[in-house]
Each structure stands twice: as structure tokens, then as C-alpha cells.
Amino acid sequence: xxxxxxxxxxxxxxxxxxxxxxxxxxxxxxxxxxxxxxxxxxxxxxxxxxxxxxxxxxxxxxxxxxxxxxxxxxxxxxxxxxxxxxxxxxxxxxxxxxxxxxxxxxxxxxxxxxxxxxxxxxxxxxxxxxxxxxxxxxxxxxxxxxxxxxxxxxxxxxxxxxxxxxxxxxxxxxxxxxxxxxxxxxxxxxxxxxxxxxxxxxxxxxxxxxxxxxxxxxxxxxxxxxxxxxxxxxxxxxxxxxxxxxxxxxxxxxxxxxxxxxxxxxxxxxxxxxxxxxxxxxxxx
Amino acid sequence: xxxxxxxxxxxxxxxxxxxxxxxxxxxxxxxxxxxxxxxxxxxxxxxxxxxxxxxxxxxxxxxxxxxxxxxxxxxxxxxxxxxxxxxxxxxxxxxxxxxxxxxxxxxxxxxxxxxxxxxxxxxxxxxxxxxxxxxxxxxxxxxxxxxxxxxxxxxxxxxxxxxxxxxxxxxxxxxxxxxxxxxxxxxxxxxxxxxxxxxxxxxxxxxxxxxxxxxxxxxxxxxxxxxxxxxxxxxxxxxxxxxxxxxxxxxxxxxxxxxxxxxxxxxxxxxxxxxxxxxxxxxxxxxxxxxxxxxxxxxxxxxxxxxxxxxxxxx
Lengths: 285, 315
Hints:
The complex is a heterodimer.
Chain A: H1 2-34, E1 47-48, E2 53-54, H2 60-66, H3 71-105, H4 111-122, H5 127-140, H6 146-169, H7 175-182, H8 187-216, H9 219-224, H10 232-236, H11 249-280
Antiparallel strand pairs in A: 1-2
Helix pairs in contact in A: 1-11, 2-11, 3-6, 3-8, 4-6, 6-8, 7-8, 8-11
Chain B: H1 22-56, E1 59-62, E2 65-71, H2 75-81, H3 84-117, H4 122-134, H5 137-148, H6 155-159, H7 175-204, H8 207-215, H9 220-248, H10 252-257, H11 267-277, H12 281-305
Antiparallel strand pairs in B: 1-2
Helix pairs in contact in B: 1-12, 2-12, 3-7, 3-9, 3-11, 4-7, 5-7, 7-9, 8-9, 9-12, 11-12
């Protein structure tokens, strides 16, 4: 037994190497491009490993997006992304919190229907919403505004929040709530004093997953905004170089690194919870 | 959908009594009060646009020319189905869906198996594997695009020993190489989700059954096909359903990498082009309804055909 498991350990560790390389290589490439100056992008002589890593890394691209010519595009987009995603996440998580509590805790008709609807909505092809929203938004003045993005983002974030949080809430030891109710607390008091502290990790994880989904959106961002409310993914598609004759490659990648670092840090810290949230929402845990 | 009373009552462990007590009635009311806001908002933001799309799809309607909006019946659908552009987009969408889902299932399963069995860098592996999930799809698209571009990229310089690949081989010059790179980016970004779902399935397989099979002299291939995979079937089907529907909606990677050139545009890309670039609201709406129906059909095939129970374990 022991000998076999030792042999197994080596095998699995060996297999982990290509998996990690496959995952990390594009990330390194992103970083590498962001550190290359525009004139060395296509020059393999100024890079190591066949045009992979720059021999003379430079922070010019970061200067370009924060203070230079691309900052007019990037900084407002970063602000818009943060506002839209935080607001959409907040609304979804608050609404879903009550909904998920009811679903996992109370007996009422139609709870399965709510879950099924949430699932159906999450399968919804979001592009199919773009055409009608584009028409209505153009008429009502919601086009290219923050609320004009937050509203469709709810269609992305709300079902996910309901589904994920219901899964988390069903793992909560509800006896604590019953104990509180036996001691004379009402349903609402029990919810506020007992359940919220117990539920906070699930709510928090749901918020992270929901935020990632909103953060990732490109379809709505590129269809329903022009230059006022444009978010980062859409702005990346409109990047231009320092001059119109220069490729925006380095600036795009620098901006990509900037928006990737915070989410990667979230993943590094909350890996276990995110995994639990992603899987318990889909597979019976 | 909005009629609450018509929804089937799910038999549950508690509250199965035929007549509801006052307390149970109060619980019903509280349940709906708490669940209602989320449910109503969810329906409003999705049901309204799709109904609007269905309505608009029967009109010849350009946003730039609203005075000439006229009812044309099913004409937009006929135009869509008889246009080769539509079938080209459908073909690209189906091809990308099949390739990515199949590759991700195999790759995702291998990664899940390694994550399940590995001892030493267990936590590190799980964290690293999860990272692409958090990366913005557009960022992934650009990264892979620049990787494969002849001038700025490195792939050609790394693989020029392969017959057919030279230093200036243009990956985005024709259909299949473009699809290949689009799929790579899509696979890189979404395999983590697939492998996590499969990992959750693997964790449910009773290890004593594996041991018993090994004791009986089964090879690891037999253990895999006779014990592990059958016991993981629900998890596999759920993962397949999620990813198939997701892949069928592909938009971001194609927009960034090829912009739909060389026949690589997807259905979503076509809708975007009709609606935003050409402001053909009527035709765009018809295409949206078609895409919506495709997704419904795929979901129905999985749920009915393969008996995927998505609400398992929920009451």
C-alpha cells in the first residue's frame, strides 16, 4: 500500500507540471508584453527565448495608461468598471440574500420554480438582450450611462447570486436559528442576530463570484456604451498606441495586467471558498 | 411563470400536511415576501427584453429610420434562414462549441484527476488552476492573439520546426487556424470551471469501490471506465450542460481575435453586427430569438434526453 501510494505521488506531481505551465505561460506572456517597448515588440533580437521575455523591460506602457496618452481611455474605464460591477454585485447579493434565505429555510410553494427560473436565466444568451435593450436605451437616454449597464448586469449577476447563495445557505446549521426562536426570537430577529453571522462567508463568496462575472462582461459593455460609461473590457478593444502609427499592444497588456492583479489576489486568498461556491452551485455537494 | 399558485408543490420532508396551519401559512407569506424582490427583478431584466425582441422580430425596423417601421410577419426569420451568413455563423458556433467542450471535458477530467490525487503541491495546484477563471475573457483573447500574431508573437518562433509552420505562418489568415487559436483561448479560460465541477464529482465517488475493484484485479483503465466514470455521470452531465450553453454563446474571443473574419463569426457576433453596426433592430431581434431557441433546445436535450437533474439535492 505505502509503496504504491509513494509511486502514485510522484506520478501526479509530474503531471501537475504541464498543467501549471499551461496555466501560467499566458500570464507570463501578458506580463512580458506589458514590459516591452513598442519598437521591440516584433524584434526577437531584443528578447530572450524566441521573442518571449524582453531583454530590457520598461514601465513605459504603465506610464502610458496611468498618466500618458491612454489614460483618458483607461482611467475612466477603470472607474466605470468598478462602479458598475460593485453596484450590480451589491444589488444582486442583497436581493439574493433574502431570496436564498427563504429558499433554504422556509417552506413555501414555488421555491423550486424560483431556482429553476434562476438557472434558466443564467443560461440565457445575453446577446439576445442586446438588441431590445439597445433600442429602448437609445430612446430613453439610458444608453451609455452607468444605470444603463447596471440594469442588464443584474440579469447576469442575480441568478448566479440566488443559485450560489442558496447552495451555501443549505449548509448552514439551522438548529442555531431554531434555538434562538425557542428562546423567543422572531423569524426576523433570528435571521438578523443568528443567521447573518453564520451566513456571512457564503454571502461574501457569492459576492466575489458575482463580481467576477460582472467584471468579465464584454457583450453589454461594448453594445450599450459609447465613451461615457465604457468599462475596461470594452475600453481594451478601443485602445490605440502612443501615436496612431504605434501598436497599442503594450498598453493593452499593461492595462490587462492592472485589471488582472486584483482578481488574481482574490483567487489566491479565497481559493477554497471560490471553489466551494462554484461547485456547490452546480453539483450536489 | 408569475402565477405562484399554479407552480407544482415539491414534496419535501417537512410540511407535507394537506391542510396548512396558520403558522405554515405565515411561513408561506414570509417566504414569498423574502423571495419576491429578487424573483421579480430577475424576470423584469430578462423576460422583458426577450419579449421585446420577439415583438420587434416581426417588424422591418431600422433604428436610424423609425418612421418606416412596418410589420413583415416572419420575413426576418425567412431572411435569416435563407442567408448564407447565418449558416456560416451557425457552423462556426457549432464547431467551436463541439471542439471546446470535448477538449475541455478530457483536459478538465485529467486536471480534476490530478487535483484529486495529488499530495504534494495540492493547494498550489488548485489555486493556479483556478486563476484563468478569474481573468477577463477579453484579456485572455488579446493575450492569445498577441501570442499567435506573426510579428509580436512567439508561437511561430517556438514551433517553426513543425512541418507547415514557418516564422511567418499567418494563424489568422484562414478559417481553421483562426478557429484553433480562438478555441485555445476559450479552453484556457474556461477549463478551470469544468475541472472544478468534475473534481466535485470525483470527490463523490466512493473510494472503497475503487479499492474493491483493484483487489478484484481490475486495471486502472477498467477502474476508470467501470467505477469512476459511471459514478461521476451526474457531475459530468451537469458540467457538459453548463459549458455547452456557455460555449454556444461565444462572442468575446472572436470579437477580439478575428472580428469575425474568414467565416469565424458566431451567432452572437452576427447579432451584434446586425444590431449595433447596422441598427437593423428587426433582423437582429429575429436572430436573437433564434439564438434563444437554440439554447432552449440544447438545454431541453440535456435535461430530457440525458436526464440531467439540475436541482438535485435542492428542496
